[in-house]
Design a protein that fits this description.
Layout (H helix, E strand, L loop, with lengths): L4 E7 L3 H10 L7 E8 L5 H10 L3 E4 L5 H11 L7 E5 L3 E3 L3 H11 L3 E10 L4 E2 L2 E2 L4 H10 L7 H7 L8 E3 L1 E2 L3 E5 H7 L11 H11 L3 E12 L9 H19 L6 H19 L1
Parallel strand pairs: 1-2, 1-4, 2-3, 6-12
Antiparallel strand pairs: 4-11, 5-12, 6-7, 6-11, 8-10, 9-12
Helix pairs in contact: 1-2, 5-6, 9-10
Length: 280
């Protein structure tokens, strides 16, 4: 039998983005047994809830904003099914027909893998590099410094694996915009770390899966489109700060030894400087 899939998504003033998300679900996977939408205490929760319930799915409204990872955890905890697989997706994702079933089939074929990521297209149809290498301090710093002003720099290209988008392969981590996680692996690791309010929770999950002996597999036969219509774009400064805070959390935990204290301090000041630069 095809593994059963629980689909979860987290919304925040995402009503309009949810419409194509919900309409694309029925043709995306016969393996889907339950869909849960969690709203992070947004102003548009009532309208989103009506839309989700009208589609026949479960809607959970949180009393406060728990961030992306916290919202995902709340959705999984609210499930009434006992799924084999958990699909986490942004509300501004549109599934191509059969996309979820392709990922579920890959999970059957690859029992040593703990997560599976589809090919993600941007709204203009270009491939988003969603299956990346884990960032080291060197590549992370170089990508942060040059990624915007020199997108083709060798550190960014290597980190993003931009030229490796057409074949199945293992990756360091898979984008949380759309990722299928084996329920066994999710439970083993405790899911997403809610300490990341926004950003890097997917990097952290990929790293922990690898450390636990699971592989993160990129499955390009499954295709989704990420429209970028989600509400995080409405407050650029807040999102930039969240991104930099999460980057520091990830790197400071990766380089946690006492002897790395000067390095962590340098990273902290470097990220503060970059946040000022990009937000000025």
């Amino acid at each position: 039998m095809t593994p059963s899939v629980l689909v979860v998504t987290v919304t925040y003033n995402s009503t309009e983005a949810m419409r194509p998300f919900l309409s694309s679900l029925p043709s995306a996977g016969s393996s889907v047994v339950e869909v849960i939408v969690v709203d992070n205490a947004s102003d548009g929760a009532a309208e989103t809830g009506e839309l989700v319930r009208a589609a026949g799915y479960t809607f959970v409204e949180l009393p406060k904003n728990e961030g992306y990872g916290g919202g995902v955890r709340a959705a999984v905890d609210a499930a009434t099914s006992n799924p084999d697989l958990i699909l986490v997706a942004n509300p501004d994702v549109i599934f191509q027909p059969g996309a979820i079933d392709v990922l579920a089939s890959a999970a059957e074929e690859l029992p040593g893998a703990g997560s599976f990521g589809p090919k993600i297209l941007d709204a203009d149809g270009t491939v988003y590099p969603s299956a990346r290498r884990l960032p080291s301090l060197r590549t992370g710093v170089a990508h942060a410094l040059f990624g915007r002003i020199w997108p083709t720099n060798p550190w960014t290209v290597r980190y993003r694996a931009e030229r490796e988008t057409e074949s199945r392969r293992a990756a360091g981590w898979l984008s949380g915009a759309c990722v299928l996680v084996r329920a066994e692996a999710y439970r083993e690791l405790g899911g997403f770390d809610p300490g990341y309010f926004m950003y890097f929770e997917d990097v952290d999950l990929g790293a922990r899966l690898g450390q636990a002996g699971w592989r993160n597999m990129y499955i390009p036969e499954a295709v989704v489109t990420h429209t970028g219509a989600h509400s995080t774009s409405r407050d650029a400064h807040t999102m930039e700060k969240a991104h930099h805070d999460s980057a520091y959390r990830y790197l400071s935990r990766k380089y946690a030894g006492w002897y790395f204290a000067p390095l962590r301090l340098a990273v902290r000041f470097g990220l503060w400087g970059r946040l000022w630069w990009v937000s000025r």
